[in-house]
Write a structure and sequence with these properties.
This protein has a 6-stranded parallel sheet with strand order 2-1-3-4-5-6, sandwiched between helices. The protein has a 5-stranded mixed beta barrel with strand order 15-16-17-19-18. It has a 3-stranded parallel sheet with strand order 7-10-11, with helices on both faces. Helix 9 runs parallel beside helix 10 and helix 13 (320-333) runs parallel beside helix 14 (360-383). The protein has helices at residues 12-26, 51-73, 84-90, 93-97, 113-119, 144-150, 171-174, 183-195, 223-231, 251-259, 276-281, 288-301, 320-333, 360-383; strands at 2-8, 30-32, 41-46, 79-83, 103-105, 125-127, 153-157, 159-160, 179-180, 200-204, 238-242, 266-268, 306-313, 337-342, 389-397, 403-407, 413-417, 426-434, 439-443. It folds into 3 domains: 2-127, Rossmann fold, CATH 3.40.50.12160; 135-384, pyruvate-formate lyase- activating enzyme (Alpha-Beta Horseshoe); 389-443, OB fold (Dihydrolipoamide Acetyltransferase, E2P) (Beta Barrel), CATH 2.40.50. The protein is built from 14 helices and 19 strands. The protein has 453 residues and is of the alpha/beta class. Helix content is 35%, strand content 21%. Bound molecules: 5'-deoxyadenosine and iron/sulfur cluster.
């Protein structure tokens, strides 16, 4: 049997796409392997969001090439594929920089992998089209045994692409225009995942709360209606969604955070900066006050909600006062978790040409200050869970025998000791203590609140 090794970088959508590539290739007789040296086919599913992410891909490609040469000495052939957002953005340039690459395929055309692989036997191939046909129509339904092997939580792409054009961001260029999948297709995929033992779904999209896919009534459905529909499916216990834009946080979706028990109390709502001048230059089309209002509305319906955001420091023109405004917003919101980045100029984006680029040293200093503060808040958020009883979905084996690890509703990692409970059980847990990244708790009774069939 032929073997494929797939390595995904970047966001959850790349993880999802990587799995769907494995599904397509399984039909062609490829089994997945975790060992690159065993693989007849190596796929790097790449991320273009920041320069560092791109650099990582090229250095990894150097290693993959060495692996290919070693295998060639043993008489084995290895095909190298670059997929994902670097493939989309750089196309044939990748094969100029690394001649060992056989095929470059963008995020909207990987359903064509079998055909492209055949063509690449004769010559190098690049496919970075945004095809008329929708890739989802050509991807096989996730197979039960492979789904089971991937665990009890799954990502499901419901929306892709972005029309917002934030001035720092490559996504509108690499992922294309905003498209929502129809409700019926999403429900069918969710049911296939449930049949494979999945009980928690994270709906993903670059702009997921702008979802407006066709409903069964032929009309566009907003995200909250899709969430309601999925919550009604047998076997779905937990729902999450990411990533959202503040301007698409409509009242229906906010209400769902109060009304829909399956919708977990966690909201990733990136704001990027707390300064109106910077938000304006970023083309975010909302103010810091507007963002605070949304947070207040969400907290009004779900006071315990865990909040999360992305921040960029050192955006062109960011002054000390702008940065202070970001820090004030962080102190006011008190996030459960935050992802923060130094601004990285991306080719083709408006901000990359801005005159007032911030020196690297200033970016580093601001990032360190920001990260220290959000870490304090994260620890405080976790500490506030100690002494509480929370439901935990057990997802994987723990560090030691007899331990299982899972997630609280707030997406915290929780470790428990148990002989009687299994992966896929939701158990009620008294939280007792914490280390930097993990909470420890005691299962209230060895009877699961819910289990996977
Ligand atoms: N530089 C730094 N961070 C960026 N992000 C997106 N583009 C850039 C960039 N050019 C961050 C944003 C976004 C997250 C996915 O990555 O914070 O929300
Ligand atoms: Fe990276 Fe954005 Fe592409 Fe995801 S969509 S892989 S974050 S560039």
């Amino acid at each position: 049997m032929k073997k494929v090794f797939i390595k995904s970088y970047g966001c959850q959508m790349n993880v999802y796409d990587g799995q769907r590539m494995a599904d397509v290739l399984a039909k062609e007789g490829y089994a997945e392997t975790a060992e690159q040296s065993d693989a007849d086919l190596v796929i790097l599913n790449t991320c273009h969001i920041r320069e560092k992410a791109v650099d990582k891909v090229y250095s990894e490609l150097g290693r993959v090439r060495e692996g290919k040469e070693l295998r060639a000495l043993q008489g084995k052939d290895t095909r190298i594929v670059v997929a994902g957002c670097v493939a989309q953005a750089e196309g044939a340039e990748i094969q100029r920089r690394q001649t060992a690459v056989d095929l470059v395929v963008g995020p909207q055309s990987y359903h064509r992998l079998p055909d492209l692989l055949t063509r690449s036997e004769r010559r190098k191939v690049v496919d970075t089209e945004f095809p008329i046909e929708d890739k989802f129509g050509f991807l096989p339904v996730p197979d039960r045994s492979r789904t089971r092997a991937r665990g009890v939580t799954a990502f499901l792409t419901v929306q892709e692409g972005c029309d917002k054009f934030c001035s720092f961001c490559v996504v509108p260029y690499t992922r294309g225009a905003e498209v929502s999948r129809p409700v019926s297709k999403i429900v069918a995929e969710a049911q296939a995942l449930v049949a494979g033992g999945v009980c928690e779904l994270t709906l993903i999209g670059q702009n997921v709360n702008a979802y407006h896919g066709e409903g069964p009534d032929g009309r566009p459905w907003p995200l909250w209606r899709l969430l309601e529909r999925l919550a009604s499916l047998d076997g779905i216990r937990r729902l999450r969604y990411m990533t959202s834009h503040p301007n698409d946080m409509d009242d229906g979706l906010i209400r769902a955070h109060g009304d829909l028990p399956a919708l977990m109390p966690f909201l990733h709502l990136p704001v990027q900066s707390g300064s109106d001048a910077v938000l304006d230059a970023m083309n975010r089309k909302h103010s810091a006050a507007g963002y605070r209002d949304i947070i207040a509305k969400v907290r009004a319906v779900r006071p315990d909600i865990a909040l999360s955001s992305d921040f960029i420091v050192g955006f062109p023109g960011e002054t000390d006062a702008d940065f202070d405004a970001t820090m004030r917003l962080i102190d006011d919101v008190r996030y459960a978790t935050v992802f923060s980045f130094k601004y990285s100029p991306r080719p083709g984006t408006p901000a990359s040409g801005a005159a007032e680029q911030i020196p690297e040293a200033v970016k580093s200093e601001r990032l360190a200050i920001l990260q220290a503060r959000v870490e304090e808040h994260r620890q405080a958020f976790n500490a506030a869970t100690i002494g509480r009883r929370v439901d935990v979905l057990l997802e994987r084996a723990g560090r030691h025998p007899g331990q299982l690890s899972g997630k609280s509703p707030y997406l915290q990692t929780v470790q428990v000791e148990t002989d009687a409970c299994h992966i896929g059980d939701t158990v009620s847990v008294d939280i007792l203590s914490q280390t930097t990244n993990t909470l420890f708790g005691r299962i209230v009774s060895d009877k699961a609140v819910a289990s996977v069939a």
